[in-house]
Write a structure and sequence with these properties.
335 residues, alpha+beta, 7-stranded mixed sheet, 11 helices, binds nicotinamide-adenine-dinucleotide
């Protein structure tokens, strides 16, 4: 157990030792700590060693020269120069926010990037500025396209955020797989089983063994519909931005043969573009849903993002639980 402030200093120290500037190390540490606080441990400290391994193997550039190409007042393409994904996404969302506040709408593509963690972390930054946002990123192969025997699509998250007129943002941030790959990785590391019905082994048989699931097939949400959504995200993030796609995004943990070249796409707009009373309308929209009669055993109808916000509030002042495996990783990285 350690407090957030101390963990933050440790992350920054490790990343600076790996060649990142103080500014970039701070951006990464904020994203990793946020993942811990919202309870997404599979996207927090458990990934730090992987990022450092990739820097050491020269497949992440610790000192990127990130280029922002202005296509119009509201359209930008960012070449991340193979930076760690957190830094590229930070530059991109800040550009999208700035431009959307000025013009009403912004579209920012990112190429030559890497794994950027939780989409919701970026969406929240836009929502805090009273903007509505969509974030997409592609990821390494995990899901087989509907009807195929071989994995190709990533767990490709879809994220939508919008202000609610309360301090709790609406953020739907979901993988298109039944379970996110990070959770399977953590289970494989700790020797735990994964839930039934979320993955197949490499021969196509259902498995609860995390290692077999990692070398096998993850199942998409809602069958062919989920496979279609994974494909959509691959096109938006990969094809449209000029990044890797079609199964070419490298697995950050297992494939050190080159940069991942992940693509991201951020779409940001003013929430009141078409109606002057957005705040009143969204409040009423949420009220109607929350006051519906509830199923037995349900205490409260939540909107997407509420659960993570509540976890964040609960955890922010608490100590962070550091597992033995992560403790070992941190010792190696600090040596
Ligand atoms: N960078 C990458 O390559 C990558 C790939 C996959 C996933 N991810 C990230 O992993 C994270 C976890 O994804 P996940 O699919 O496990 O998310 P999840 O299943 O934990 O949550 C999905 C969504 O459902 C909402 N939700 C949960 N319980 C709810 C309830 N009771 N009522 C209403 N809404 C509820 C959540 O707020 C969230 O918006 C995401 O932040 C995603 O961006 C990243």
């Amino acid at each position: 157990m350690a407090n957030g402030k101390k963990i933050k200093q440790i992350i920054i120290k490790i990343l600076k030792r790996n060649g990142l500037t103080s500014k970039h190390a701070l951006i990464c540490s904020n994203a990793l700590l946020n993942a811990e606080f919202v309870g997404a441990h599979s996207h927090g400290l458990s990934r730090l060693k992987m990022y450092c391994d990739r820097i050491q193997r020269k497949v992440i550039n610790p000192k990127p020269r990130i280029k922002i190409k202005k296509i119009s007042q509201s359209i930008f393409l960012i070449d991340a120069n193979n930076s760690i994904g957190f830094v590229a996404a930070d530059v991109a969302i800040k550009q999208a926010i700035k431009s959307a506040k000025k013009t009403g709408i912004a579209l920012v593509g990112v190429k030559n990037s890497g794994h950027y963690g939780l989409s919701g972390f970026y969406a929240e930054q836009a929502v805090k500025k009273n903007l509505t946002v969509l974030c997409f990123t592609n990821a390494p192969p995990a899901i087989a396209p509907h009807g195929a025997k071989k994995i190709l699509f990533g767990t490709n998250p879809i994220c939508f955020g919008t202000p609610t007129s309360s301090k709790v943002p609406f953020i739907l941030d979901t993988s298109v797989s039944l379970i996110n790959r990070g959770k399977i990785r953590v289970a494989a590391k700790t020797g735990n089983k994964i839930p039934k019905g979320v993955a197949l082994d490499k021969d196509g048989y259902p498995t609860t063994n995390a290692k077999k699931a990692l070398s096998g097939i993850q199942l998409p949400i809602a069958g062919f519909r989920g496979s279609g959504l994974a494909w959509m995200v691959d096109i938006l993030s990969g094809v449209i931005t000029g990044s890797n796609h079609g199964g070419k995004v490298k697995d950050p943990f297992d494939d050190f043969t080159g940069p991942q070249n992940v693509g991201h796409l951020f779409f940001v707009m003013k929430s009141n573009l078409f109606t002057k009373n957005y705040n009143k309308q969204i409040k009423e929209n949420i009220r109607r849903i929350k006051t519906l009669p509830k199923l037995k055993g349900v205490k409260k109808i939540l909107y997407p993002g509420e659960n993570k916000y509540l976890r964040y509030k609960k955890n922010i002042s608490k100590k962070i639980k550091v597992s033995k495996i992560i403790e070992r990783d941190l010792k190696i990285l600090l040596n």
